[in-house]
Design brief:
2 copies of one chain form a homodimer. A 3-stranded antiparallel beta sheet of chain A has the order 1-3-2. In chain A, strand 2 and strand 3 form a beta hairpin. In chain A, 22% of the residues are buried. The radius of gyration of chain A is 14 Å and the shape is globular. Helices cover 54% and strands 10% of the residues of chain A. Chain A is mostly helical. The first copy, chain A, has a single domain, classed as Multidrug-efflux Transporter Regulator, Chain: A, Domain 2 (Orthogonal Bundle), CATH 1.10.1660.10. Chains A and B meet through helix 3 and helix 4 of A and helix 3 and helix 4 of B. The first copy, chain A, binds a DNA duplex (30 and 30 nucleotides) through helix 2.
Chain lengths: 105, 105
DNA sequence: AAAGATTTTCACTTAAAGTGAAAAATTAAT
DNA sequence: ATTAATTTTTCACTTTAAGTGAAAATCTTT
């Protein structure tokens, strides 16, 4: 499922697959944790988006991490997270690089 | 303040310095986020403990991270965190190394 | 224009993080 | 050793982030 590189899927299908409410995906979008492609207002989630969201769920559910921590790791260019995070999401946090550099001082 | 390498300080003083309730420090201890030295039941926080706790507060308050995420980063031997984390706290999570190795698979 | 789907808004639930207060136990002082 | 002062522990409460339900608003499509 969701194996086709070039296909994209509507929010309700993705939410069901991940076992969350579609509202949760809208919620993540407010934090720029995911940026699904759009045609008009309608969202289309790519394979990469879905794999990333699966990883986000694992960090949050299995590991007990929170949203902000995931964002902090994106900003810090953390290896483990960056490995799975779609480029456009990483790019959303480009302007935060300065803050990351000063992290902890 | 708290500049002397070999001195140690009672919980109430440390809590006040950090701007938290002393109950918060007991709470952190339940999660093994800090292991103050003890003489009998009384806790004594070292300079290293206090600097670590300051960093923990920064991660949680400034960055919005949660407790579990900090623990995940200790387990993962994250550079930024390990740099500030006292060895005895790191050691508390030694037995979790295997899980870290399998992280994300 | 009507039916069906998607998005948006409002308000609610849940769980983690943190705290207040008082009882119990220790430590320190006389 | 007995009392006074601290510290620890327990219970229950508050606050906030994360997540959700339901309905209204906005498309889409036929």
């Amino acid at each position: 499922m969701f194996n086709e590189e070039d296909k994209s899927y509507p929010i309700e299908l993705v939410a069901e697959f991940l076992g969350v409410n579609s509202r949760t995906l809208y919620y993540y979008e407010k934090f720029m944790l995911v940026c699904p492609m759009r045609r008009g207002r309608k969202r289309y989630y790519s394979k990469a988006d879905i794999e990333w969201l699966e990883f986000v769920r694992e960090m949050m559910y299995e590991q007990g991490m929170n949203l902000r921590s995931i964002i902090v790791l994106i900003r810090r260019r953390d290896d483990v997270v960056l490995n799975k995070c779609p480029q456009d999401v990483v790019d959303c946090y480009k302007n935060y690089l300065v803050r990351v550099r000063n992290f902890g001082e």
